[in-house]
From TrEMBL:
Pfam family, one: Isochorismatase
Annotated keywords: Hydrolase
Domain of life of the source: Bacteria
Origin organism lineage: Bacteria, Pseudomonadati, Pseudomonadota, Gammaproteobacteria, Pseudomonadales
Gene3D superfamilies the UniProt entry points to: Isochorismatase-like (3.40.50.850)
GO molecular function (one): hydrolase activity
Span of domain Isochorismatase-like: 5-148
Name of the protein in question: Nicotinamidase-related amidase
InterPro entries: Isochorismatase-like_dom (IPR000868), Isochorismatase-like_hydrls (IPR050272), Isochorismatase-like_sf (IPR036380)
Key word Hydrolase present: yes
Amino acid sequence: MAKQALIVIDIQNDYFAGGKWPLVGVDAAADNAARLIQAFRRNADPVVHVRHEFTSDSAPFFTPGSEGARLHPKVLNQGDEPVVLKHFVNSFRDTELQSILKQQGIEELVIIGNMSHMCVEGTTRAAADLGYPVKVIHDACATLDLEFNGQRVPAAQVQSAVMAALAFAYASVLSTEEFLAA
């Protein structure tokens, strides 16, 4: 069996109620993320947390050093679980994520977190391009309503479109229950 790691992307305070950029369904997704983190810890499989901070205090959310940029209490790292700081959508770009995975001999990735249509998607595509087989756990990811060309696109449709695109060529897309049962 290939050695796998759980990549927990941007489950941070600003995405929750009271934060600067709340997502639709983020509490349920974080609850599933917490279940997955516990399963990885029980199996002694690596968990790598990714935390986004913008480089400017004028950013709309995740401002440097803010409470909103901190990891949410439901998914805090424990022990020697690394926290990768990133400033871009792709969690591999200008970070130590790739070297952490190589040092631990990781061959497969399981990806969860926020936002589905940005950092989850960007990181999944980058991971696949780097040669990792990837699983995305769709109900441990959250997004929000978007707008395109004057039309509102509900979060559920954004989520479905992103997961369908990832499942087409970049990752296996599973529910938390499907993953835990396997």
